[in-house]
Amino acid sequence: MTTITKQDALDRLLSASIVMFLSMQDELATHLVASSASKIAMDLCEKRHPDLNLWKVYIKPEFHSQFFKLMRKNYNFLKHADRDTEDQIEVTNLREINCFEILTTQWHREALFGNVRNWQNLVFFSYIALKYPKWLKLDTFSDQQKNAVKKLQLMCDSENIDEFFEKQLKLILEYRGEIATAVPGLGL
Question: Which residues of the chain have a pLDDT value below 70?
Fold first, then answer.
């Protein structure tokens, strides 16, 4: 018999949702995995840190309402299938919703258990900082994170950001062994 903790489940679901997102897998499946991780993280935060609203720390105030509506609409519709078995919902912006679902889950996970340094989180942070710089308070990030974002901006300036990261993910997965040897501790 295998046992897992809530943290184990959160970490595994978060990592899986990042890989699914960056490799542009099915958006609905990605959404359900990311939302499950988010629900665990938010429930744990509510119990351990009831006054913690990390999305308010990192998201500009003028985007709070829009941000939260985007995050929960589709997940709640699917979660309550027993109540409205014949209903339908128009699914829009699912990629963007998944992006921010994963981002807030990363923030809550870090607040709960400390910073996790694995390749999935590092790659995803870079993606979000390049894709949505206007939404984020980049001044809250470390100098190391800011420098990494600047370097990546130069690397993918002429390329679609989603395609750039999809290619990078393929390379990471292809050369996982070599990278793990060169940079231990990334969870490859």
Answer: 53-56, 68, 70-71, 80, 116-117, 157-159, 172, 175-188
Q: What span, in angstroms and rounded, lies between the C-alpha atoms of 44 and 58?
A: 19
Instruction: Please state, in angstroms and rounded to a whole number, the distance separating the CA atoms of residues 176 and 187.
Output: 10
- Residue 15 tokens read as 């990592």
Chain centroid to Cα 76, Å, comes to 18
Name the DSSP class of 59: B
Q: What is the pLDDT of residue 158?
A: 58
- State the pLDDT at residue 12: 92
165 to 31, 108, 162: CA distances (angstroms): 18, 24, 5
Q: Output the pLDDT for position 135.
A: 74
Q: Which two tokens stand for residue 71?
A: 């995050």
What pTM does this model have?
Answer: 0.73
What is the three-class DSSP state of 136? strand
CA distance 175 to 83: 46
Q: Rounded to whole angstroms, what are the CA distances from 8 to 13, 68, 87, 88? A: 9, 26, 34, 34
